[in-house]
Amino acid sequence: MNRRLLIKESRTYYQRYYRLVALAVVLMMMVLTGSLVLGDSVRGTLTDRVSERLGSAETIVATGTNFMSNDIMQSPLMANARGYLLVDGFLSDGGQLIPVYVWGTDCDSVPYGEAIINQPLADKLHLDLSASAEGWDGALHLPSHTLVPSGSLFVTKSYATQMRLHVSAVKDVKSGGNLLLKNEQTLPLNVFVNREQLAEVMELEGKINIIMSDDILQEDALAEVWTPEMSGIHSRGNTLTTDRIFIQDDIVLKLNPEAKYFSYLVNDIINATDTVPYSFVTAVTEWQGSPLTGREMLLSDYAAAHLHVAKGDSVRMSYFLSKDLKRLETREQRFLVKDIVPLEALVADSLLQTEFPGLSNVERCTDWDSDLPIHMDRIHKEDEDFWYKYHQTPKALVAYDAVSEDWGSGFGTATALVLSDDGARDLTMSDAGVMVIHPREDGIYAAQHGTDFSSLFLALGFFIILSAVLLMQNVLEEMYIQRADEIGVYRHLGYTQQNIRGMLIREACGVIAVAATIGVLPGVLYSSVTLWLLGNVWSGATHTEGFALHFSIVTVLISWVIGIVICLISLLYVINKQIKQGV
User: Fold this and answer.
1) Could you tell me which residues come within 8 angstroms of residue 255 by beta carbon, excluding any fewer than 6 positions away?
2) Which of 229, 243, 292, 537 is the most exposed place for a label (fewest CB within 10 A)?
3) CA–CA separation, 558 vs 553, rounded Å?
């Protein structure tokens, strides 16, 4: 008997069963292949996003909450680098405010008053600049003050500064339109403007806070060209101040200063029923060679006259403090008046005075721009007269140790330092918050070696795969039950169990192999549809703008082999079971 012909005839005779087997195999392969391709596609998309958000940059120099002088860009080390002034902003469109990243750049030749946006923002604004030569006009809302870290006391968080812009073009992905420093997959909404204009509007002339270089820059090489002055740390003689108002505690501890100063706006200085409202007070460790300790206070003659106090008396002082930078509390302390000092002496000492944006640069107290709950009705004409003449000159000095814990925060614990020598030369870039990052390698590694998305999608489709395998087994079992007499005939004709098993396997393997190969195509379609759903219908869950299909022949071959192995194991199980029952 010709076994090959027998197998062919049996396959044709039992084709109604084999059609169901083929359907089950195609369903299993569709989910199996689709899950593996989905995993590749998600990983590939995440890898592509790394290149999109970094452009050609291999090194990023970030200043954190600080800023850096643009003078550093004149160094030969920055030959292939670009300096940016990056801030958060809002774009007005039809009565709504759209949060955007504002990139002040001088490498895109953006004229004053013009702007370039990326494609996701163009889609958000429903703009098609290719079909419109007129462009689009809008208002860009920017933080009013940014030299002082956002969230610190006395500084408004309002977006009070505006730029009128004419959007004239869209910057594509290849040109760096989707630049993003955060390690996230949501496509950014970017606005690119002239850096000089942005710096002028925000009063940050000559400042940058991001450097992106196409070279791999090492921290040691950058340290050779960096100076504390570039990060706004000013050392004049033996005194040190900073553009960001507050000197970080790490710097204070490292420099071990001879004297520390901390200017603060207090709510009240009180003696019985007499009150001096809303006054600047400076905490000092010593003044003019005389240390202040415990609860000691030096009171200006101006404040002493208004409070009717003399040397040796005690007064109360209340002030706001920010608990964990979240809750605003009012605290009160009592101080002993160690001495009464002339106001002119306090005016003459510049270290006692600190300029707070929104407070110091106005002519009247009622023009203060702060998020603090200041009651303007408590300010009288004599307070306005003092402010007009002396501005942020302190009305009192208090012991630094008595208030430093309350007044200090993560932004800093002093506003000025007096050093024993030029200690600023010991400061490093990390002390000033400057970080050198090589994000591409880390980003790609995280994208490719993070969550195993193939396993995730296989787990989601596990019950479909299991159902398909069970369907195939049930159909095969039903067919072999119908062929019990046939298997018995083979035995009487002298066929061994191994011969019978081999014939049945060869008979089914052809169907399984063809069905598995056909199932690859709907598997790719399955992954494409799922990717579309993830990027559109389910975008709220994925928080991304969509995924691209990444098709790999190796992945398809792996899924095909895995599918064949699963089918063969199931086939052998059913055949062995039926042969043993037949015996």
Assistant:
1) 240, 417, 419, 423, 424, 426, 427
2) 537
3) 9
User: Where on the phi/psi map is residue 237: left (φ > 0), alpha (ψ -120 to 50), or beta?
Assistant: left
pTM exceeds 0.85, yes or no: no
* Average pLDDT for 222-251: 88
Backbone angle region of 424, left / alpha / beta, with phi > 0 → left and psi within -120 to 50 → alpha? alpha
Q: How many CA atoms lie within 13 A of 149 on its CB side?
A: 17
Separation CA 87–CA 67 (nearest Å): 11
In this prediction, residues 307-322 reach a mean pLDDT of 92
Listed residue (368, 341, 357, 360) closest to 284, CA to CA? 341
Structure token pair of residue 76: 């030969």
Residue 281: partners with Cβ closer than 8 Å, 6 or more residues away = 263, 264, 265, 266, 269, 317, 319, 394, 395, 396, 397, 398
| pLDDT confidence bin for 160, thresholds 50/70/90 | low
Return the C-alpha torsion angle 549, 550, 553, 558, nearest 10. Answer: -90
User: How many residues are listed for the chain in this entry?
Assistant: 583
Confidence of residue 541 (pLDDT cuts 50, 70, 90): very low
Which residues, listed in sequence order, are joined to residue 274 by a DSSP beta bridge? 271
> In sequence order, what are the beta bridge partners of 222?
none
Ranges 155-164, 271-280, 560-569: which has the least confidence: 155-164
Closest CA to 500 of 525, 515, 483: 483
Token pair 């977006």: residue: 159
Residue range 45-83, pLDDT digits in tens: 777 777 777 878 889 999 887 889 999 999 999 989 999
Cβ-Cβ contacts under 8 Å for 368 (sequence gap 6 or more): 358, 359, 362, 374
Structure tokens at 254: 């490292």
| Least confident among 303-307, 371-375, 433-437, 564-568 | 371-375
Residue 437 contacts residue 66 (beta carbons within 8 Å): no
Is 425's pLDDT higher than 90? no
N-term to C-term CA, the chain: 23
Q: Strands 290-291, 286-287: parallel, antiparallel or unpaired by DSSP? A: antiparallel
- What pLDDT was estimated at residue 285? 93
Distance (Å, whole) CA 394 – CA 413: 18
> What is the DSSP track for 451-472?
S-HHHHHHHHTHHHHHHHHHHH
DSSP code, position 160: -
Q: What pLDDT, on a 0 to 100 scale, did the predictor assign at position 130?
A: 67
CB-CB contact of 262 with 415 (8 Å):
yes
E-assigned strands of 214-295?
Answer: 233-236, 239-242, 259-271, 274-284, 286-287, 290-291
Helix H segments across 178-274? 195-201, 219-225, 249-255
